[in-house]
Design goal:
This protein has 156 residues and is an all-alpha fold. Helix content is 53%, strand content 0%. It is elongated and about 100 Å long.
């Protein structure tokens, strides 16, 4: 396989435009700590393409039963990372809110109180008035139906 002068993965990443971040001042970046040679500045498309390339290279050079075992093991590792992350988010953010349209974009700092949000309910008093009016109409129609029934059955 020709690697076009790339002797390792970092050479390949640099050829794709990735630059290594050497921010050593950890005290000012407590919440912004990335993994060594981090992925934060890596283009998302490149990140996916690298995974696809590695998967193709690995799968093409091993028997199918080893592919299955290794694939399952990698899925297990990914599931553990996702579970760890979910527990960390739950620990940091608490249980969260139940679904309610009024909670639309509630945790998005870029959506202020004047931003468009979920549709607001109409005035409940006007809805109550409409319901009462419709109930009165239904009762009136039912009374007319009874009157018509009585006339057709010979009752005055």
């Amino acid at each position: 396989m020709n690697f076009n002068g790339w002797s390792n993965f970092e050479d390949f990443a640099r050829a794709c435009g990735y630059t290594k971040s050497n921010n050593e001042n950890e005290s000012t970046n407590e919440g912004c700590k990335d993994i060594p040679n981090g992925f934060q500045s890596l283009n998302p498309e490149l990140f996916v393409i690298i995974g696809a390339i590695l998967g193709e290279i690995l799968a093409g050079n091993m028997p199918f039963n080893v592919q299955n075992a290794l694939g399952n093991w990698l899925e297990l590792v990914g599931q553990i990372i996702l579970t760890y992350n979910a527990q960390q988010q739950y620990f940091q953010g608490g249980p969260g809110l139940y679904y309610n349209p009024k909670n639309y974009n509630i945790n998005n700092p870029y959506c202020g109180p004047n931003s468009p949000t979920a549709p607001k309910p109409e005035n409940t008093q006007s809805q109550t008035d409409k319901i009462n009016e419709l109930e009165a109409r239904i009762n009136s129609l039912m009374a007319e139906i009874e009157l018509i029934k009585n006339k057709t059955n010979g009752h005055p």
